[in-house]
Amino acid sequence: MALWSGRFEEGVSEFTQRFGASLPVDKQLYAQDIAGSRAHAAMLAHQGVISQEDADKIDAGLERIKGEIEAGSFPFDINNEDIHMSIESVLTSEIGDAGARLHTGRSRNDQVCTDTRLFAKKRARDLMAANVELRHALVSQAEKHFDVILPGYTHMQHAQPVLFSHHMLAYVWMLDRDFDRLRAAYDAADANPLGSAALAGTTYPLDRFMTAEALGFSRVIPNSLDAVSDRDFLLDLLYACSVSCMHLSRLCEEIILWSTAEFGFVTLSDSFSTGSSIMPQKKNPDFAELIRGKSGRVIGDLVALLVTMKSLPLAYNKDLQEDKEGAIDAAKTLEDCYRCATGMIDTMEIHPDAMLEQAKKGYLAATDVADYLAKKGLPFRRAHEIVGHLVLLCDKRGCGLEDLSLEDFKAESDLFEEDITKCLDLASIVAARTTFGGTGNSAVKEQLDQAKEALAAD
Ligand code: ARG
After folding, report:
1. Which residue stretches, if any, does this entry annotate as coiled coil (predicted)?
2. Cα of 94 from ligand 1 centre, angstroms
3. Does the structure's ipTM exceed the value 0.90?
């Protein structure tokens, strides 16, 4: 018999029982549910609502149940619908009336969001730690191959040469912002709904600040209706997970491209590659692809909850039971993706020669040649056109800008002198971009220090 069955004459069918149950999902919140109940019972006793003796029995009983769940001997029964009623009914069958007093001044409506908030806080912290690991892997690749040059692209066409370290650090900054978003999701969850009861508060003299402190919440939600029906904190977590998955997907897309025969910029270690069941020669970047693919799932989890929430009237509605599965899935998926990406980046082999070889193609010096003229007083638009002609000439001859003679340059403008060769050297082109945040070696060194400092603080 369900704990709420008093006013019912008939039970639900086996099918609807199963359909309405959330136990298969929310059993993962057992530790949070037990922590919430222990804090509630201690507070009830402190406020004189239940006796200290009952509170002690409840506490010991819950401790025992926690051990049973962890040992795998707890009698989970789908007829108990969710983790809250599962624990409470087993507790009551074990300790009698004291157990039946636990739910005084409480509803599953404030209980479930208390558990979910505690869970969200824990998962946000786990993800922050995994995010830091991945940033370490990227930073160490940037340090190891600091001066390596590769082509920078726009529109997937060769644009200007950049440092490999600069490229890696771009992802470090994305992940740095993801860390901040995860921290914001942690903060959003960090408020106590317990004591809101079903929707309106309760007539018992509950001390919501006491349970907040016991559970480690930094504040108490000031409106009981909002407290039981708000799931913004899960949306915040899902959004943080989605954005970070999107970043990982971009990183993996580049790794997939870089490991093709056409690029040959990197080789993934065997432990992060798979073979083909038919083509003996294949070495596929499956894990990078899988991380790229999993972003779709996580973004789907975010959209699913947003759509579930829209149009929900106050206060609790059963629709809210759909909140947990996607959030649990998104956090687990991102955690696994972080872990996989960390191993993949850590063990990825870089091929500086192949990168440099490609950087020599596609007239990457063109902007600097135009800047050379502009710095000698020619309006930049004019300089741009002149260099366009030089590129056209190279195209026709099938050579690079560095293969042109000084006469070829002078034929387009007599502002060109011997020192134009400096503008054609890739290392000099890169090094000259000394503006803050640019790809110049000195600027990237500064950036690297800044990224490491941010990492050490997180
Ligand atoms: N299993 C429910 C959930 O996950 C718990 C709250 C149910 N409350 C209710 N009045 N039906 O949302």
Report:
1. none
2. 23
3. yes
